[in-house]
Amino acid sequence: MHQLLARSVMRRLVSSSTRNRFMWSLSSPPSAAVIVWKEVGKPSSESVVMMSGQKLGFCGQWWRMMSSASEPPTKNSTSTVAGKEGDKEAKRSRASVERMEGEDEVAVSSYWGISRPKITKQDGSVWPWNCFMPWETYQADLSIDLSKHHLPKTLLDKVAYWTVKLLRIPTDLFFKKRYGCRAMMLETVAGVPGMVGGMLLHLRSLRKFEQSGGWIKALLEEAENERMHLMTMVELVQPKWYERLLVIAVQGAFFNFYFVLYLLSPKLAHRVVGYLEEEAIHSYTLYLNDIDRGEIENVPAPAIAIDYWRLPKDATLKDVVTVIRADEAHHRDVNHFASDIHYQGKRLQEAAAPIGYH
Ligand SMILES: [Fe+2]
Ligand SMILES: [Fe+2]
């Protein structure tokens, strides 16, 4: 009863301001983005609050904006959403009764006043994903050279190269031509190195009181990108119970193996990943060949893939595999580059990290 009364009072307090919502839109080129603050039902009330051609800069500004999201903008503001300090209690109240437009249910009420601003697509429909945001989406660079190969010259390079080549044998025997299943399973492994490397660089940065040169972010981006590959593939292929068991076992072994390897020799660890990515490009090319020959049905692309890679609405599996393959080529470059930096006797932070390299 008390909760109902309190909710009713809060609604009255904030009824006018809760009508304000974020609307997100992309301008051309796609890397440029414009955020507008719009009062629902009043198209003329739009205020451009921020514009950025750089996705990453945009991301940082966005989160600052979110921190004051429940404050309505001043009439003439064109650079900030709500620079003024508002009443913190009112903010919490507004957030706790935040209602998503078009939904009948009130968002989960929280004492902490946490709620996500409404985000819409360019066409005005509600942004359907919580697992990634519009500013994390991108168009894959399909012009990247897929055939580039790092020639193994040193002993460590040869160890990395032949380790990967040997690992391919049991993988080929297990999956044969089930490329969808193969991709899904291997993406569960591919997301590990970036996370381990990023984590270890993060800890090093804390330990040594030094910057990472952007490499923490670059490696974590790679891990997240690989996880999105998995989230896409799992929409197309559902793992069987024994495949799930295999993933648990492989993750346990590979995480610890890569963790120790990165501690002992980051130069070798990055080289191994570089060669793994070369193999991934090869596997996705075989996948595409089977799609072209009609041996694998070219089904419609999952919705998550269309939004993540900004694909056309009628995109197909072939389009999805093509952009994933391009991603793998970028990972190949990043990891061989990282290994080369170590080979030159330098630390990663001495070379600019390829943040946002897709
Ligand atoms: Fe991948
Ligand atoms: Fe990759």
Automatic annotation (TrEMBL):
Its main location: mitochondrion. Belongs to the alternative oxidase family. Residues 69-99 are annotated as: Disordered. Coiled coil: none annotated. Homodimer; disulfide-linked. Its EC number is 1.10.3.11. It catalyses: 2 a ubiquinol + O2 = 2 a ubiquinone + 2 H2O. Pfam families: AOX. The keyword Cell wall biogenesis/degradation does not apply. It is a multi-pass membrane protein. The keyword Metal-binding applies. It is found in: Mitochondrion inner membrane. Binds 2 iron ions per subunit. This is Ubiquinol oxidase. One of its GO terms (biological process) is alternative respiration. Residues 84-99 have a biased composition (Basic and acidic residues). Residues 69-81 have a biased composition (Polar residues). Its cofactor is Fe cation. Keywords: Electron transport, Iron, Membrane, Metal-binding, Mitochondrion, Mitochondrion inner membrane, Oxidoreductase, Respiratory chain, Transit peptide, Transmembrane, Transmembrane helix, Transport. GO terms for molecular function: alternative oxidase activity; metal ion binding; superoxide-generating NADPH oxidase activity; ubiquinol:oxygen oxidoreductase activity. Gene3D superfamilies: Alternative oxidase. It comes from Capsicum baccatum. GO terms for cellular component: mitochondrial inner membrane; respiratory chain complex.
